[in-house]
Amino acid sequence: MGQPTWIERGVPGRHGEVRVREYTPDGEPSGPRLVWVHGGGWVVGTLDEPEAHAVSMAVAKAGFPVTSVEYGLLPMFPLVGPLRLRPSPFRYPVSQDQVMDAWLDAQRSHGGAMWLGGASAGACLAAAVALRLRDGEGSRPAGLAFLYGLFHGVLPEPSASLRRRMFGVSDLRVVQEMVRRAAVNHAGHADDLHNHAIFPGLGDLTGLPPVHLLNADRDLLRASAENFAHRLTQADVPHEGWYLHGTTHGFLARPEKPPFGVGVRAIAGWLAG
User: Fold this and answer.
1) CATH for the 5-272 domain, from 3.40.50.300, 3.30.830.10, 3.40.50.1820, 3.40.640.10
2) pLDDT tens sequence across 97-130
3) Structure letter (DSSP) for residue 190
4) What per-residue string of b and e applies to 4-18 under the rule 16 or more CB within 10 Å gives b?
5) How many CB atoms lie within 10 A of CB 55?
6) Please, which pLDDT band fits residue 1 given cuts at 50, 70 and 90?
7) Residue 204 and residue 196: Cα distance in Å, rounded?
8) What is the pTM of this model?
């Protein structure tokens, strides 16, 4: 199979135009369209980033059309000291609405079976949109694909096994505080850290389509995905969760490393059924 082609276009949205990049496989598509949302803590990431472009190209090369979504980014938050937020037009609900508008446009423009997926903070946006679709804002995805997803504003306590994997690698309190600061920056106020409309790991997950998760092994944010998987079990949502041994957060942003290939092959395998 040859190289995929892609075009970039603007999608009309409720907060203005949303940029998307649509990837078309060389030859007849072999499965559903993936609407893909990159990560980056809501402060970094564009359609050109490897976690967006390289992932989309690899999935399209495997035979699946992809729509990659660019959402509005927030100013970087202070890493230490008082958490004073800089003004931004892209706090909740704007970036989530942009993903929703891109999804609805893909439904209108392409039709057929569609999956929704994302990495890290992009998984948070995608999961929140999936819950809104479940509640009637549009057609439900055929499946959900989340890689090293973050689904909470306050990082759940890590399991004993995760603590052992992280010994000597990361300081739990530092990571918890960075997640909290990023989440407040996204939500706009600390009072919203437990708002399930913003952080879907806190919501009722009943009725979601099948969920597939691939997590980094040595990653404290894995505690969020593990808690999310537990809540999927409680909600009787079909799901599977895997760990990529030896990896750290963000392995899809490093296409030159072997874990990138494992990750995109996992996505293609899920799409293929």
Assistant:
1) 3.40.50.1820
2) 999 999 999 999 998 999 999 999 999 999 999 9
3) G
4) bebeeeebebeeeeb
5) 27
6) low
7) 8
8) 0.97
Angle at 41 between CA 252 and CA 102, to 5 degrees: 80
Q: Supply 148's token pair.
A: 């090293």
- The three-point CA angle 61-209-216 to 5° equals 60
| 70/45 Cα distance (integer angstroms) | 8
Measured between alpha carbons, how far is 190 from 175 in angstroms, rounded to an integer? 17
Distance CA 118, CA 130 (A): 11
Reading across the β-sheet that carries 66-70, which strands appear in turn? 5-11, 18-24, 66-70, 33-37, 114-119, 143-147, 211-216, 239-244
| Res. 51 pLDDT band, cuts 50 70 90 | very high
Q: Which residues pair with 14 in a beta bridge?
A: 16
Task: Find the distance separating the first CA and the last CA of the chain, reported in whole Å.
Answer: 20
pLDDT in tens, 156-211: 999 999 999 988 777 888 999 999 999 999 999 999 999 999 999 999 999 999 99
The residue extents of the domains of the chain are 5-272
